Every structure is written in structure tokens, then in C-alpha cells.
């Protein structure tokens, strides 16, 4: 289906997702200490406070609401999702909101907190091998078993992208005069949606991707090769950010970016240590509990690469003063979070 | 024989509200469908003071005290207090924001992170002494700096009035969320030294009268407030300390009479319940509260509270999440040991 994807698509999603039992408009938090350290006015978009604990609920509500509109015979077959956890929980909750059956396929390595998060909304949970291929195959099998249930892809799906884009609509309303938005990137659903909304309202806003080291998104953008080399297509990144381990940007996100120039050409690439430091800062300054991917955009804000990016933009006559930072999720095992904090504290202690 | 007047009244809290508003965060009220479901109530409004400047509601009282002191004496050189906790950070920042120097006396056993926060982040002068010497060290500082003022963490009426602004906001936010003219049926407030409890009891009674029930929440291991409330006179704690470390202080001659006059009930909870409910908020609400705030959630979800205040008659409840300054690794380790 080649329906246009633009600001109006996101606005249409916005008209469907805020029903009772649906999405909430999440708050924006600030911290004078972090803004001072970063050298900009920073605004934290708190998607870990979204229902189900991550922004994924927006895309899920957008997609499932469309299935619900297809007529009782089709919608009664339900929905299937394959997911590293947050998307699965989101689709499970969205299906519950519309009274549809739901099965979720997750890798066997998914943290317990995320598995629990899926089943608490009523979906059937199916475990698979931790590879992209195994996830896709298992999801197709389950959809068939349910008599032709609709597959809701975590990011390669227009209604899902449009749903994630409602973050951008809220941000542009909550923080007038934004110069840039830092967005964690994996499959690219969220960053694409946010860019469609934000740049649709103000083409001058820069939407800057923040990736775990090894994703090589900037290289992909520069060379025009979505999958940077053979073998990286199906591989998962080696990162503590368990939610954003997909290596290549999804095909739809890639295609839309080529067409509309949504992403800022420079990508901020972040190490595990930087993520841990940002998790600690989120806890100590923002008093929020986030998962590692939830802290990566803050790590991007404070990175030397972002300082350089701002300097270049400034000298190009496009200063960056007001920056939104998306905190995308907060679903993590407490023991794992404590472990990351401890590791950071030990490293920080050694340095002094 | 008439009882002596209470140390503050509703106009003091209203004045504090106007005075401190430009300097403090109007913290959000959050809700959570899982916790509401566990509570069996219709609405639970969590007032998130963990998001207040310096990470706790203490910043309100400290700001009101500094501003009042400056109004009385524009050349105020310094404020002095003894505290290792949230009041120290709060006073340090509040004073700094008004161009006043803060001198904090801290026990030499205070955690390094708290010392560093007060001295390095908030730029206060710190004197470290054995805990038993803290008042004399504070007196010495006051004598050294003519014109300086002592700001007690909970007994100072200016501080108490400032803390009362939490519910001034919560009452407005209740109307915003539940409709014009709405009131909460119960508000649950943690109690330690009693500053938060007394100030907010004055605010709630001042605007909502007796329509709202005021219930305090306290660790059983440091239950001086409950015992004092039941006995009708001030009773002291033993040497035990709670994991809700912000609540290890006691009621005093200013806070106790206000609580006695305004509060309906005080419930105590076990250390395990405090940890369990703190973890619940961390995991489900993603808000990093300190265990002192978990005490209120524990009361909300307790059988005793549900029995005396049944959801059918008391459907709408407010809970003050008082702060978020916590050593996550340390508390997570304690949580891991829960049965």
C-alpha cells in the first residue's frame, strides 16, 4: 500500500490513540543541572511514563485501532506481534483495549520484566530463538494458526510509524521553538514518525538519531546502503540497550528518509559506559527509573560529538539552543539496572 | 485553660504559596492503573515531590524560610542548620538562589554522596561533627556570623508553612483532574519530623475543612508520631532506624499540636512493606522514589487502611510521594533479599 506518509497521517493517528484505556500525553521534564552541563535548554520527553512503560503503545494503538475498524469478521481473528518486549506488551495492551485476541512472539533472551509486561495485558506469549529470522518465521506461523490474524510489525508499518509520530506532535506543542530532537534509533519507526510530525510543522527542526555503537547508521546514510555489509542484516548489536539491538534501519524508515530527508546526516554513536552514566544521571537528577535504551538519548545530549555537531550548526547560522531528548522506555529488571549503576559508580570511583 | 495557639494557620500557608511559587516546581500529579487497581479506589493521585528541586518537598519549606528571613532582614548574611538529609540540600540551594550563604552542620557519619551534593553541587559550607554535637556546632556558627539565622528542618513555622504548599497545589490539581469543585476523600502523608504532615494538614483543613480525611504514614520501627498521637503527648523513639531514612526524625513541640488538632489517623508499616511498595512504584510507575515515600504507598495498599476507609465511601485518594534521593544500589540489594 502506498498511501502518503506525512504530517496528516500522524495527525490522523492522534485522533485514534487517546481513547479511554489508550495513550496518555506524557509530560516533559527539565533539569537545570543537566541543561547547564549540556550547554542547551534540554527538555526530556517522558515516554517511559506512557502506558505499558514505553512509547511503543502509541504505534500499537494506532495499528490495532485500524484493525478494529476493518469489520468484526476480520478484527475477531486478532493480532500477532514479534518483539524484543516493549512492542509485544504494547500490542497486548492495545488488543485488550479493543477486545481482540493477541499472540506475541519474543526472543528467549528477553528479560523477565518484559515477558511479564506482555502477559499482564492478556496476550499469549510464544518464545523463539534470538535471531531476526526466527522471530519473523514464528510470527507468521502464529498468525496462520489464529486463522489469519493481522501482523503488527514493530517498526516497518505505516500505522505504527504514524502512532510513534504523535510524540512529535505533543513535543511541538509542549516546547515551542524547538531547534532539535534527539531520538534513540533501532528499526527507525519512532524517529521517522517524530520527524514526519515535527518537520511537517517546522522544517527547520533537526531530528538527530542516537545509536548504540556498532549500528553504523551514519555510514549507511553516507554510502546509501541500508545494510552496510553482508551478514549485518540479521545480526543483533552487542549493547546493554536490549530494546534497540536491530542493526539496519527498517526498509520503510529508510525509504521515507530517502524521499523526505527526515534524519540529520550526523548520527550520535554511544558506548555502553556512556549509557550507564546517563542512566545514573537520569536517576539522580530526574528521579526516573529508565531502561538502558531510555537513557541513550541523554548520553547523546552530553556526548562530545553532539557538542561538535552544535558548533558546526552554529557556524552554519543554524544555532541549537532548545533540545528535546526522548526517554523512550523504562521496562527493566531492577537487578540489572542496579548492576549497571554499580558498574558506573565503580568506574567513576577508579577515575578520581 | 485554653490550649496555646498552633504555631501556624492557613493564611501563613497561603502566603507561603504566593511567596515561593516563582522559585519551586509545580510538581505533577501522576496516576497508574495498576496501583489504582491494587488500591481498589476510583482515583489515586500521586503528588510527585521527588521531582521537586533538590529531589524532595523540603525545598519548599527551605525557600519560604529564606525568603521570610530576607524580608525581615534584607542584609541576611547566612542561614544555618543541622541535617544530613534532604533539608540540607534544600536549604543549600534555596539560600544560594537568594544570594545567602548556607552553613550546614552534618554528622561525620553522613554518606559521602550527601556530603558531596551539599558541598559541591549546592555550594554550602559544611562542618562535620559527631552527631551528639550538632546543636552546639550550629550554635557556634550562629555566634560566629552576626545576623545569621537558624532554620530547623521541621520545627520552624516558616518551614512548615512552605511544606503546606504541596497540598495547595494538589487541591488545585484535584479540581483540574476530577472536575471543578472536586475534593479528595483521603490524603495520605508520610511523617517523620512532622513538617510535611503539619503544614499540609493546615492547608487541607483551611480549604477543604473536615470533608477530607488526613491519614499519616510512618515506619513501625520509628513510630513516635503514632504513639504520641495515641497517648496525647510527645513520646520519643528508640535508637532503631528505618530504611525510610528521611523519617528517622521525631515530632516536636511545634509540629505535634498541629497534627493532634488536624489529623484523623496514623498507620505504621513494616520495613519489608516499605521496600516492597517502593519497588512497586519503581517498577510500575518508573518514578524513583526514596523508601520514605514508599511508606505512604504501603499504607494506601494496606488492609488496615482499606478496612477503616473503604473504597466505596472513600473513592478518591491522594498520596504524597515526598522525595527521590536514594542510593539505588543499596536499596535494590535490600529489595533483592525480600521474601
Strand count, sense and barrel status of the largest sheet of chain B are:
6 strands, mixed
| N/C terminus separation of chain A | 57 Å
Give the class of chain B from helix and strand content and strand pairing.
alpha/beta
H/E topology pattern of chain B: HEHEHEHEHEHEHHEHEHHEHHHEH
Describe the protein's architecture and organization:
Chain A is of the alpha/beta class. Chain A has helices at residues 7-17, 32-38, 56-68, 72-75, 86-98, 112-119, 132-145, 158-174, 189-201, 217-223, 251-260, 272-286, 292-301, 304-315, 334-351, and strands at 28-29, 41-46, 79-82, 102-107, 124-128, 150-151, 180-184, 206-212, 268-270, 322-327. In chain A, the strands form 2 sheets. Chain A has a 6-stranded mixed β-sheet with strand order 1-2-10-7-8-9, sandwiched between helices. A 4-stranded parallel β-sheet of chain A has the order 5-4-3-6, sandwiched between helices. In chain A, helix 1 (7-17) packs across helix 9 (189-201), helix 3 (56-68) packs parallel to helix 5 and helix 8 crosses helix 9 (189-201). The mean pLDDT of chain A is 93. Chain B is built from 15 helices and 10 strands. A 6-stranded mixed β-sheet of chain B has the order 1-2-10-7-8-9, with helices on both faces. In chain B, strands 5-4-3-6 form a 4-stranded parallel β-sheet, with helices on both faces. In chain B, strand 7 (186-190), helix 9 and strand 8 (213-219) form a beta-alpha-beta unit. In chain B, helix 4 packs parallel to helix 5 and helix 12 crosses helix 13 (291-300). Chain B is globular. The interface between A and B is medium-sized, with 22 and 22 residues.
Question: What is the compact description of this entry?
Answer:
With 352 residues, chain A is of the alpha/beta class. Chain A is 49% helix and 13% strand. In chain A, helix 12 packs across helix 13.
Amino acid at each position: 500500500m502506498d498511501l502518503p506518509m506525512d504530517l496528516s497521517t500522524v495527525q490522523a493517528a492522534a485522533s485514534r490513540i487517546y481513547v479511554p484505556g489508550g495513550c496518555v500525553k506524557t509530560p516533559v521534564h527539565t533539569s537545570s543541572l543537566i541543561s547547564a552541563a549540556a550547554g542547551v535548554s534540554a527538555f526530556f520527553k517522558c515516554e517511559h511514563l506512557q502506558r505499558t512503560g514505553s512509547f511503543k503503545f502509541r504505534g500499537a494503538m494506532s495499528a490495532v485501532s485500524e484493525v478494529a475498524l476493518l469489520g468484526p469478521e476480520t478484527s475477531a481473528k486478532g493480532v500477532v506481534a514479534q518483539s524484543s518486549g516493549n512492542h509485544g506488551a504494547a500490542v497486548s495492551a492495545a488488543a485488550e483495549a479493543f477486545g481482540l485476541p493477541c499472540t506475541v512472539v519474543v526472543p528467549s533472551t528477553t528479560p523477565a520484566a518484559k515477558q511479564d509486561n506482555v502477559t499482564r495485558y492478556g496476550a499469549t506469549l510464544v518464545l523463539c530463538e534470538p535471531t531476526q529470522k526466527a522471530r519473523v518465521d514464528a510470527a507468521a506461523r502464529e498468525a496462520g494458526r489464529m486463522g489469519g490474524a493481522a501482523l503488527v510489525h514493530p517498526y516497518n508499518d505505516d500505522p505504527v510509524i504514524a502512532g510513534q509520530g504523535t510524540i512529535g506532535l505533543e513535543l511541538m506543542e509542549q516546547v515551542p521553538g524547538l531547534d532539535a530532537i534527539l531520538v534513540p534509533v533501532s528499526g527507525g519507526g519512532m524517529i521517522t514518525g517524530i520527524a514526519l510530525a515535527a518537520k511537517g510543522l517546522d522544517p527547520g527542526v533537526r531530528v538527530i538519531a542516537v545509536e548504540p555503537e556498532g549500528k553504523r547508521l551514519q555510514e549507511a546514510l553516507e554510502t546509501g546502503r541500508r545494510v552496510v555489509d553482508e551478514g549485518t542484516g540479521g545480526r543483533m548489536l552487542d549493547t546493554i540497550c536490549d530494546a534497540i539491538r536491530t542493526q539496519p534501519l527498517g526498509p520503510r524508515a529508510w525509504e521515507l528518509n530517502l524521499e523526505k530527508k527526515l534524519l540529520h546526516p550526523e548520527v550520535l554513536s554511544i558506548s555502553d559506559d556512556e549509557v550507564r552514566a546517563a542512566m545514573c544521571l537520569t536517576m539522580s537528577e530526574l528521579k526516573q527509573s529508565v531502561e538502558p535504551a531510555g537513557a541513550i538519548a541523554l548520553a547523546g545530549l552530553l556526548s562530545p560529538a553532539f557538542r561538535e555537531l552544535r558548533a558546526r550548526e552554529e557556524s552554519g547560522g543554524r544555532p541549537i539552543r532548545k533540545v528535546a531528548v526522548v526517554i523512550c522506555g523504562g521496562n527493566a529488571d531492577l537487578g540489572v539496572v542496579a548492576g549497571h549503576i554499580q558498574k558506573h559508580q565503580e568506574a567513576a570511583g577508579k577515575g578520581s | 485553660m485554653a490550649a496555646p495557639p498552633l504555631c501556624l494557620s492557613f493564611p501563613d500557608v497561603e502566603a507561603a504559596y504566593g511567596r515561593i511559587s516563582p522559585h519551586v516546581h509545580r510538581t505533577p500529579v501522576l496516576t497508574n492503573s495498576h496501583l489504582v487497581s491494587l488500591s481498589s479506589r476510583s482515583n489515586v493521585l500521586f503528588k510527585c515531590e521527588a521531582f521537586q528541586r533538590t529531589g524532595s518537598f523540603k525545598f519548599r519549606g527551605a525557600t519560604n524560610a529564606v525568603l521570610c528571613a530576607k524580608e525581615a532582614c534584607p542584609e541576611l548574611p547566612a542561614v544555618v542548620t543541622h541535617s544530613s538529609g534532604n533539608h540540607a540540600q534544600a536549604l543549600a540551594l534555596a539560600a544560594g538562589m537568594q544570594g545567602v550563604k548556607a552553613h550546614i552542620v552534618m554528622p561525620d557519619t553522613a554518606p559521602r554522596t550527601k556530603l558531596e551534593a551539599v558541598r559541591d553541587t549546592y555550594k554550602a559550607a559544611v562542618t562535620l561533627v559527631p552527631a551528639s554535637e550538632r546543636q552546639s556546632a550550629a550554635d557556634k556558627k550562629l555566634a560566629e556570623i552576626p545576623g545569621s539565622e537558624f532554620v530547623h528542618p521541621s520545627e520552624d513555622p516558616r518551614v512548615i508553612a512552605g511544606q503546606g504548599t504541596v497540598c495547595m497545589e494538589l487541591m488545585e490539581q484535584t479540581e483540574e483532574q476530577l472536575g471543578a469543585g472536586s475534593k479528595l476523600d483521603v490524603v495520605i502523608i508520610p511523617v517523620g519530623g512532622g513538617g510535611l504532615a503539619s503544614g499540609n494538614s493546615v492547608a487541607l483543613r483551611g480549604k477543604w475543612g473536615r470533608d477530607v480525611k488526613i491519614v499519616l504514614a510512618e515506619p513501625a520501627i520509628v513510630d513516635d508520631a503514632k504513639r504520641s498521637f495515641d497517648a496525647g503527648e510527645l513520646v520519643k523513639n528508640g535508637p532503631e532506624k528505618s530504611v525510610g531514612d528521611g523519617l528517622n526524625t521525631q515530632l516536636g513541640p511545634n509540629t505535634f499540636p498541629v497534627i493532634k488538632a488536624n489529623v484523623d489517623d496514623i498507620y505504621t508499616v513494616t520495613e519489608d512493606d516499605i521496600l516492597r511498595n517502593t519497588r512497586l512504584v519503581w517498577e510500575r510507575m518508573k518514578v524513583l522514589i526514596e523508601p520514605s515515600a514508599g511508606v505512604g504507598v504501603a499504607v494506601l495498599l494496606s488492609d488496615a487502611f482499606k478496612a477503616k476507609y473503604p473504597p466505596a465511601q472513600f473513592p478518591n485518594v491522594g498520596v504524597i510521594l515526598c522525595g527521590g534521593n536514594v542510593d539505588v544500589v543499596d536499596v535494590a540489594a535490600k529489595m533483592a533479599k525480600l521474601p
